Amino acid sequence: MTGKNLEGPEADALDLGAVFRALADERRRSVLTQLAADRSDNERGCNSFDLPISKQSQTHHFRVLREAGLIDEVDYGNRKGIRLRRADIEKRFPGLLALLGADPPGDTAPR
Q1: Of 16, 32, 44, 72, whose Cβ has the fewest other Cβ atoms within 10 Å?
Q2: What gap in Å lies between CA 79 and CA 58, rounded to an integer?
């Protein structure tokens, strides 16, 4: 089934301020961390993330991530697919995804 790609900015137009604003929210950071942990970069459904928020709030958070250029979204009509823009992020902001996966210094609490 083919979907409609929802466009974010081009790789060269990724803005660090927009990325930081998108990552300022712990739920969006959690989504990006989960995507970054899956090195296969498979497309995931919106409902595959453990987000205890309404569908409307999820839609908002995914839109913010897309508009910052961190994810691609594909609209299939009755569902959306999410994929990390790993190559574009690594090209523009080398090491950012590794930082997201790192535990904060002194953090010994299980995740």
Answers
A1: 16
A2: 12
pLDDT over threshold 80, residue 35: yes
Q: What is the C-alpha separation between 42 and 26, in angstroms, rounded?
A: 22
Residue 111 confidence (pLDDT): 47
Output the pLDDT for position 12. Answer: 87
Distance CA 57, CA 16 (A): 23
DSSP state of 9: -
For residue 58, what are its two tokens? 């999820």
Q: In what side-by-side order are the strands of the sheet with 71-75?
A: 4-6, 71-75, 80-84, 44-45
CA distances from 98 to 12, 46, 59, 73, 104 (A): 20, 23, 26, 22, 12
Nearest alpha-carbon partner for 84 in 108, 106, 68: 68
Q: What's the mean pLDDT in 68-81?
A: 91
**Tokens 């930082």 belong to which residue?**
99
- What is the token pair recorded at 44? 């995931």
